[in-house]
Amino acid sequence: xRIVSVSAVLLACSxxxxxxxxxxxxxxxxxxxxxxxxxASASEVPIEMPPNAAVKAPVFSDDxxxxxxxxxxxxxxxxxxxxxxxxxxxxxxxxxxxxxxxGGTLDCNFNHCGCAKNPAGKLKCAMLPGPAGxx
Length: 135
Description:
Elements: H1 6-13, E1 59-64, E2 71-73, E3 82-84, E4 111-117, E5 123-129
């Protein structure tokens, strides 16, 4: 009768390459670690701003506005334009988006929507650099 130790069996069955138990975080992702600190909200989780995250100048739409609340992001994953609320559309039912923060979009407060004068002097909805209110 041959006796084999349990540790030898487990060692023989383990993967050849150890697998990490946690995926490495990158500066362009928002870690869902807010659960580790229940008092912190997602907006309080520090996010490193990657290069080209904020637009250099307003990105204007063709939609007229009179105040910032007239404008919102186009309803898509990682919105890269701001439009009048009436033209925002809707996300398709069941649509799932990634949680990464992409530069040149409204992701992670890199930019925000507002109402600004275009080069012709007309008020238009636009994606503006940085978070709303300058925070």
